[in-house]
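Priority: medium. Attachment 1 of 2:
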């Protein structure tokens, strides 16, 4: 096996092949999950339908919560592969593959085996793997930030041509999710210069060609969108950045320690190796003084302690930045995985090189403890929730619990028998098996969190001239599946994330319940999607309706019509 890791070509190709198959196998088999997948699939679909590649729109109104790059990539995917779930998820899957590949590149100076382990750890870790299958902007952001961080690091410590990649990564991250694409690399760079006492690093990070690359990539869209939409700047830069970060406006508050358990659980099945990597990284900081003494000038390459400090700051500053924020969601933690993967993967590589059975067992014990804890939770969960009968969840939870148990126990047993290489091989195979088994969880969520079934009922009955309405809700996948605009019914100010676009353009497909009642009594056929309890409001308003069908798994969502006889397309 040592011959396989003699050069980078074969390990890198194997990593891409394994993760590519893992991500894309059955990627399009389940419906779009509400609300995020519906939203981030519909916006690029509307771009293709309207031909407007400058102003993002959702359900026909301006939508400026995110920049445009993710929508462009997804629109190209939809145009190439068709308007399907597979095409909608191809961008996060490819982004996840790219992020794992960049992790390999970042760890490559430590040797092919350490680089392979680093990339595999990131690519198969639970949170990274899961979000590779969900249509969100965060995976693309994490990959572009990885390019930015590593490009800038390599550019200031070695080959300055890498600075172009670093500046390009910042521009792409800015176009994907906003100012954090520049703010986070800047914060880490300043903190690293302070920690190493190499202030010249900040000057070396300055690159006129890099700035030109940055402006060429990021400048045109921001200029065009602000020229066409004078209301863009305040909403995007103030409301979506400063107010969301510093206030509770987004209703996403979590305590400051929120991301720590997410990180430990989300790095499964490599959590013990993560802790060992952090320990080794902190230990390497002791060589910072030696790095400075051995360096003949400020432009010399970074030493081991300086590299470890950069990786720790990369992960730590990003983690701290989002922990302080008043708005927290699980995907925000993705950018910390590549640097932690480098630390953990190279630590495991050193254990293999030293044949250090004691350290191997400590890492495997950490992995096993978290795997078994999650497996036990999955075994108990079906009996401690009230939405589904235990036998409905058991076919999903039992295989997951079994695989987690095997991944937690078998490598440790191999380590006890002094099979060090075998234990690591079992752990690598177990990480892939865990991902394959977790595909069943996506199938389950595709039934209980997707509007696909309700959309199919609407599609069977809606005529081209019919009004399709969502009553006091917005099931975002409806528009994607039906390829038509949805009339939204709610009280004034009750349109959530679409309120900005609704106020800016005041379209006639955003209506109050009273206006909807008039439409319902009018001559046009109307089909409405509503929660079962909301149908009581129909009765109170004196609206007669006929039930066309419902999806019992998707919250019992029901489709009703104002037509007394069957309406056929």
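Attachment 2 of 2:
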């Amino acid at each position: 096996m040592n011959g396989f890791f003699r050069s980078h070509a074969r390990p890198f190709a194997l990593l891409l092949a394994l993760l590519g198959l893992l991500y894309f196998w059955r990627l399009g088999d389940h419906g779009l999950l509400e609300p995020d997948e519906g939203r981030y699939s519909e916006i690029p679909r509307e771009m293709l339908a309207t031909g407007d590649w400058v102003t993002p729109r959702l359900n026909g109104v301006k939508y400026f919560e995110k920049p445009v790059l993710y929508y462009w990539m997804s629109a190209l995917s939809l145009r190439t592969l068709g308007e399907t779930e597979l095409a909608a998820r191809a961008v996060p899957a490819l982004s996840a593959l790219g992020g794992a590949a960049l992790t390999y590149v970042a760890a490559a100076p430590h040797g092919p085996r350490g680089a392979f382990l680093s990339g595999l750890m990131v690519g198969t870790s639970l949170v990274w793997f899961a979000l590779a299958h969900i249509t969100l902007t965060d995976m693309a952001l994490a990959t572009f930030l990885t390019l930015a961080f590593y490009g800038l690091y390599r550019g200031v410590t070695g080959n300055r041509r890498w600075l172009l990649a670093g500046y390009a990564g910042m521009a792409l991250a800015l176009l994907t999710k906003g100012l954090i694409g520049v703010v986070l690399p800047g914060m880490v760079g300043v903190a690293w210069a302070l920690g190493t006492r190499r202030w010249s690093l900040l000057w070396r990070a300055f690159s006129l060609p890099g700035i030109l690359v940055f402006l060429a990539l990021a400048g045109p869209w921001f200029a065009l969108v602000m020229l066409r939409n004078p209301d863009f700047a305040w909403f995007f830069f103030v409301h979506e950045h400063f107010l969301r970060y510093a206030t509770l406006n987004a209703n996403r508050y979590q305590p400051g320690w929120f991301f720590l358990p997410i990180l430990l659980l989300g790095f499964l099945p490599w959590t013990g190796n993560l802790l060992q990597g952090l320990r080794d990284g902190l230990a390497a900081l002791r060589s910072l003084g030696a790095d400075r003494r051995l360096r003949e000038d400020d432009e010399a390459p970074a030493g081991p302690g300086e590299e470890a400090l950069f990786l720790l700051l990369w992960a730590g500053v990003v983690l701290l930045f989002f922990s302080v924020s008043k708005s927290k969601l699980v995907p925000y933690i993705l950018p910390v995985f590549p640097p932690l993967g480098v630390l953990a993967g190279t630590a495991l590589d050193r254990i293999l090189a030293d044949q250090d059975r004691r350290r191997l067992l400590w890492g495997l014990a950490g992995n096993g403890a978290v795997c078994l804890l999650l497996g036990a939770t999955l075994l108990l969960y079906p009996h401690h929730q009230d939405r589904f009968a235990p036998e409905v969840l058991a076919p999903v939870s039992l295989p997951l619990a079994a695989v987690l148990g095997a991944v937690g126990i078998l490598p440790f047993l191999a380590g006890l028998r002094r099979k060090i290489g075998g234990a690591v091989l079992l752990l690598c195979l177990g990480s892939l098996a865990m991902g394959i088994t977790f595909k069943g969880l996506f199938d389950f969520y595709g039934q209980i969190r997707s509007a696909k079934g309700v959309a199919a009922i609407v599609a069977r009955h809606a005529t081209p001239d019919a009004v399709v309405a969502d009553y006091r809700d917005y099931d975002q996948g409806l528009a994607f599946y039906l390829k038509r605009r949805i009339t939204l019914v709610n009280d004034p100010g009750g349109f959530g994330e679409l309120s900005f676009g609704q106020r800016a353009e005041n379209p006639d497909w955003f209506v109050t319940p009273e206006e909807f009642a008039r439409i319902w009594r009018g001559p046009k056929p109307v089909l409405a999607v509503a929660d079962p309890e909301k149908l009581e409001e129909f009765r109170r308003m004196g609206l007669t309706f006929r039930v066309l069908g419902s999806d019992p798994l998707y919250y019992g969502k029901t489709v009703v019509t104002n037509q007394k006889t069957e309406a056929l397309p």
